[in-house]
Amino acid sequence: MTAPISLDVKSDYDISALNTLSLPCVARYFVELESAAQLPEVVDFARRKGVPLQVIGGGSNLVVPDYLDALVVLNGIRGRVVEIESPQHAVLHVGAGENWHDLVAFSLDNHLYGIENLALIPGCAGAAPVQNIGAYGREVSDVLVAVDTYNPETGESQRLSAKQCRLAYRDSVFKHESSGLIITAISIRLSTVDQPYYRYQALQQYLEAEYPERYKAGEIGAQEVFAAVIAVRRSKLPDPAVLPNAGSFFKNPVVTKQDYEQLKATYPGLVGYLLPTGDYKLAAGWLIDNAGWRGRALGAVAMHEKQALVLVNLGGANRADVEALRRQVCVDCLKRYGVTLEAEPRWL
Can you tell me which residues form the catalytic site (predicted)? Predict the structure, then answer.
């Protein structure tokens, strides 16, 4: 019989520093997970104490309450293994607790390409498929092979294929019927061929200015795109370490072609992108900005002055403050455009 793995469980633990919005929160119980092998004991502890499990990672997509009556599990499972699949591809197996941006840098250092557009996205690898994180024309769904999970109800480990994860725009099976599964690792397929994607105007402008000769000659590589993404993100988005925030706070809403054309007629500056389905994805940041919320505060929170899509903590805010601003922005956008906004973060 395998000996139990010792858990360092803390009681009434302050996890305010473990969410990038810096909202005050005390967890009834807290433990840091270092290995998937600890999960049976973690689940057993929660059952004996009669509290639910709440697994968190980098805390970059969370809105937390003042007190969380649960066993909060910080997913700290590490590990990166490169498996050469063919001369053109390699599969990277990654522990769920690995920092995402560090993983992007690691891939480039190892001449593996495909996620450079996702640089500087906060959070851990395990959260990437949950949100199907994406930026500048690329998403995790472009590279995901599989997700390793643990079911706390049955005690079974299961590897889900990318298809089984049902990745969509900022959505996946992990937000629905599989929300109770604990992600322990992910596998992504990367290319050994440097063929970067930089069709977004902001990236093109940066690349042309910084690397004029290489840009003109069509010789831009993934490393330059990586640098461009970092520079553009830093110019538009506040650093959570300086001004607490959870990144993009609202999803870009999708509307029908008819609704898009009606809105465009009323608001000529409306920003929208045609989808393969024929619908249009609207830029939530533009909607919020045009509704007068960019740089506007409500109590201790505000929509950022440079990027209206980002909700920031001006200092001393709590969950109720965040909820009040979320609600008001949604109400105003619904009244103005007839469009419903949906918040991206996970509410514990």
Answer: 170, 248, 344
List the domain boundaries for the chain.
10-75, 80-191, 245-347
The bridge status of strand 280-282 relative to strand 254-255 is antiparallel
Q: Which residues are catalytic?
A: 170, 248, 344
Beta carbons within 10 angstroms of residue 155's beta carbon:
11
Distance, in Å, from the CA atom of 321 to the CA atom of 67, rounded to the nearest integer, reads 15
Please state the length of the chain: 348
CB atoms inside a 10 Å sphere around CB 340: 10
Chain centre to alpha carbon of residue 239? 15
- Architecture of the domain whose range is 245-347: Alpha-Beta Complex (3.90)
- Other CB atoms within a 10 A radius of the CB of residue 6 amount to 8
User: In this model, does residue 200 exceed pLDDT 50?
Assistant: yes
Q: Is the dihedral of CA 129, 131, 136, 141 positive or negative?
A: positive
Point out the least confidently predicted range of 74-78, 81-85, 92-96, 229-233: 81-85
- Mean pLDDT value across residues 201-208: 92
Distances (CA, A) of 120 to 138, 192, 231, 332: 13, 21, 10, 31
CATH number of 10-75: 3.30.43.10, 3.40.50.2300, 3.40.50.970, 2.60.40.2150? 3.30.43.10
Q: Which of 91, 18, 83, 12 is nearest to 56 (CA)?
A: 18
pTM surpassing 0.70?
yes
pLDDT band at 5 (very low <50, low <70, confident <90, very high): low
CATH architecture, range 80-191: 2-Layer Sandwich (3.30)
Average pLDDT score over the chain: 93
Categorize the per-residue pLDDT at 4 as very low, low, confident or very high, splitting at 50, 70 and 90.
Answer: very low
Side chain identity at residue 135, one-letter code: A
